[in-house]
Amino acid sequence: MTTFDQLFESVEDSPQLLAEEVKFQIAHMIEDNMALSGMSKADLAEKLDCSRAYVTKALRGDNNFSILGLSKMAKALDAELTVALVPKAAMQHMQELFEDVIRHRAEKERKEAMIHAFSKAPANGNVFKLRECYDQNALSA
């Protein structure tokens, strides 16, 4: 009997799985651009001169886009279309950098929240020392 993990390993590096991942990435990018511009599915369908069902299909990740179709989508969304083939090693490094940035932002937000909380707290000896310590950390962050 084959387990899910075994099945996944057998297709993990397949072009078919990569194609599905790319379709979902494109769908999310379309959705993000629509949200940024306040565009509805009906608005996008009108700009593309297509049915609302086509837009829905694209947003589900069910569409095999052509380069022309992606170009039309980018134009309708007033967005730039870029394509990149990035070596896997570089992608792994970029992912690590991205994770570091996210961790740094979360730590900075946590410090800012603590500083804000301390600024509202009554000033007794311990709170004053903590507030001073966090102020120094905030300046160095």
Task: Tell me what you see in this structure.
The chain is an all-alpha fold and 141 residues long. The protein folds into 2 domains: 4-76, Orthogonal Bundle (434 Repressor (Amino-terminal Domain)); 88-140, no CATH class. The protein is 76% helix and 0% strand.
Compact summary:
The protein has helices spanning 4-11, 15-37, 41-48, 52-60, 67-76, 88-120, 125-140.
Name of the CATH first level of the largest domain: Mainly Alpha
Largest sheet: none
CATH topology label of the largest domain: 434 Repressor (Amino-terminal Domain)
Q: How would you describe the shape?
A: extended
Order of helices and strands: HHHHHHH
CATH architecture of the largest domain: Orthogonal Bundle
Question: Could you give the distance between the termini?
Answer: 54 Å
Low-confidence stretches: none
Mean of pLDDT: 82
Number of helices: 7
The CATH H-level superfamily of the largest domain is lambda repressor-like DNA-binding domains
